[in-house]
Model the fold of this input.
Amino acid sequence: MRLTIPEQEIMSPGHLACQGCGGSLAMRYALKIFGKDTMLTIPACCWAVIDGPYPYTAVNVPLFHTAFETAAIMASGIKAGLEVQGNTSTNVIAWAGDGGTFDIGMQAISGAAERNDDITYIVYDNEAYMNTGIQRSSATPHGAWTTTTPVKHYKKGPKKNMVEIMAAHRIPYTATASVGYPEDLRKKLERAKNTKGFKFIHILAPCPTGWKTDPRYTVKLAKLAVQTNIFPLYEIEDGLHYKQNMKIKERKPIKEYFKYQGRFKHLPEDEVSYLQDQVDKNFEILSLKFE
Amino acid sequence: MKKTMMGNYAASWGAQLSRVQVIAAYPITPQTLIVEKLSDIVADGELKAKFIKVESEHSAMAACIGASSTGARAYTATSAQGLALMHEMLHWAGLARLPIVMANVNRAMAPGWSIWADQNDSLSQRDTGWMSIFSSSAQDILDSTIISYKVSEKVLLPTLISFDAFFLSHTVEVVDMPEQELVDKFLPPYKPEYKMDVNDPRSFGALTDEQYYYEFRYKMQEAMDQAIDVIKETCREYEEITGRHYDLIHAYRCEDADMIMVTSGTIAETTNVTVDTLREEGHKVGNLQIRYIRPYPKKDILAAIGGAKKLAVIDRNISPGYSGIFSQELKSALYNEIDIPVRSYIAGLGGRDVKIEDIKDIAYNALEHDEPNDLIWKGVKK
Done:
């Protein structure tokens, strides 16, 4: 296979991410594709720290740090400011974690999506509030341990389906991606870069610190999430046209994915088989939508 | 060119004459007319601006911050609950040192739901790093908008222009609109030294430890101090082209006054008229209108008080558990400087009308009593 990831490195290596951070991998790929003519806005999330303290920065593009719930509207404001001054080319990216997206940022995202503001919203999803110390978010999967869902009361109820919520806004482009599959991620980032209007990319970004995993397994887990159909790779045009980007011939059991992660190790057998059923059912429903 | 207009439209036209480039707003009574008018102005192509119809006031302020960080001139308007919802982002705009100008139609906080005049909404934002004006006429609103962009862009602090719900927002007055060319000469395009620029990539607002944060605050205070002179200088320049005089305070018949009333907003206008009546009755009274509460014009206030023997403050606001907020500010300014009694009055909360007779009553009460008091609730039903 021909590798198509651009060689250019925009992000500096001297950042503050933990070892094996999926979120920093995601940023590295995103900047490779979007290039220097890009502005970022980042709310409270791991990346508010990863970029480095004042006066340092690792992203080497203009970055406006913003309040937790404002990533989408801050990007819209930046875009409007640029456009009114005659700059229609610069890419504006809202870059947020799952807490700032699925929870507190929801209202501003919905507003920007409904207006179809010309920005790209990227959520690097590590499935909890990792920066503040691994508290549960509405992106935390059923069964997971976090510091606010201790083993005795682990997270019950499914992860919020953010992709479906965004698709319901009928935005031009919605996609899921994984840092385990950079070629697929590249295509999606490029597609977002070349599409007018509101684009939403949901990137699964494993977090060794919060998932209680060995840092060397980040890419492996990002792949396993896809191979188990826990996190299928697909894209949606105009909120209507679903396309599966990676067909899994024989899906792996979720146990394969769980066994590397401390956050699931307390789960009893019956809970695991319940979750296996849920994953299969969810994928079946999703499959019906693929064109 | 003279036109009749409501206070709200004076804000819209002030923004238009200032050639704002990005407007982001959310509807809230009684501010709505400001943004409705601006929607028309933008839709008709009379103003080259982007208007983001946001889903909340929190987002309105965030959008203005984003736009301003790229070097665009940003504007919004709100009231009461909307301003309160913005609170987090007001701090953000202040500490990011972005010269946003915002109109706030002073309206009482709920509950109970009230859409009527009360200053608690904007006074609750006193410590967010915004310069803060209380306008008292439609002309004042329009002129203050234009002046504020020039001041804000010089000292890099945002400005909040507040004015009373309905008494001013929906009252039609004659306003002299300056010609656009005149305003353009007075207010050149905004050209910030630092902004979001792909050719000079920087990070704004990053994690800041105590080695730096403390100095950010110091610089903000420095800018507020400098703003006093910048406001005066800018008002002088504005007077040269329009003939209209503004300052941080407006002292009316204070020079030889024995007793000075201290007021703000529309109550100040009514008090001017009351002062004339009281003077006819032989009382040597004056009215000191506080226009800017931040930066606080302490020196000007002390100078205006001069040799007066007594002060009577009327507050259309209350800090529950203490007193009216203008009264507190005034007392702290006087301490160690001038030792005269201050009498404090609350009036007109929630839009209750404050008439000439009410202000007269307050004046008589203040004239009769030489001792300071903590608080008198004018006209409260007990």
Remarks:
- The mean pLDDT of chain B is 98.
- Chain B has twelve helices and 16 strands.
- The CA atoms of residues 4 and 174 of chain B lie 4 Å apart.
